[in-house]
Specification:
Length: 235
């Protein structure tokens, strides 16, 4: 079993059945799944995207200044992080929100040591604001935070149950990998994350497990070692 994980959640998944914003049912489902593995003694760091509220790159395509657009996206991740922390605390799980840019009292300013100390005291640590810099995605932010907190693995919760040879929502002939290396991902140009995040994980030997987070109980199944997704290994 993994002792410490970095759980990456997409902002879009938080929309659930809605077209925008946060679906309260989906949020509560996520909180219950996280509570379940927290009770097993797993130390949990979380990074959430902000695409359900605002995506900087999309904003740039609509005329926003790219830097300001990315800063708006960082704020969106803080909103999602606060929502998840509230849902976790409603389940009786102590959660702490750290931000990559200073915005006390909304959240504490992120540092590796503050995050690890909270993890070791049994808190779920939600790290928001990406890297704190424009031009970096939350995928890269999650890779960076996973490496910094010395996680055993990055669990990438998506709406797809793993990595396929092509997009399974568009190509019915796509086949799923049970395991794949970073080199294969790069050579096949499989965009499970952006290139910067993929390279960062590869160079720092951080494995990734891609799975469907939207199916209840799947997070526990991953921790229990069930082969329900795709494991990405350094070699």
């Amino acid at each position: 079993m993994f002792k410490r994980i970095l759980l990456k959640l997409s902002g879009e998944s938080l929309m659930g059945a809605k077209n925008y914003g946060i679906d309260e049912t989906r949020l509560a489902d996520y909180a219950r799944q996280i509570k379940e593995i927290h009770a097993m003694g797993v130390q949990i760091g979380i990074v959430i995207g902000g695409g359900n509220i605002f995506r900087g790159l999309t904003g740039a395509g609509r005329g926003f200044d790219r830097v300001k657009g990315d800063q708006m996206g960082m704020c969106a991740t803080v909103i999602n992080s606060l929502a998840l922390s509230s849902a976790l605390e409603a389940e009786g799980v102590k959660a702490r929100v750290l931000t990559a840019i200073r915005m006390e009292p909304i959240g504490e300013f992120y540092s590796k040591w503050r995050a690890i100390e909270a993890l070791e005291h049994g808190e779920v640590v939600i790290m928001s604001g990406g890297t704190g810099n424009p031009y970096f995605t939350t995928d890269t932010g999650s890779a960076l935070r996973g490496i910094e907190i010395e996680a055993d693995v990055m669990l990438k919760g998506t709406r797809v149950d793993g990595i396929y040879t092509a997009d399974p929502e568009k190509d019915p002939t796509a086949t799923k990998f049970s395991t794949i290396t970073y080199d294969e991902i790069l050579s096949r140009n499989l965009r499970i994350m952006d290139l910067t995040a993929t390279t960062l994980c590869r160079e720092n030997h951080l494995p990734i497990y891609v799975f469907n987070m939207d199916e209840l109980g799947n997070l526990r199944r991953v921790i229990d070692g069930e082969q329900i997704g795709t494991l990405v290994t350094p070699a």
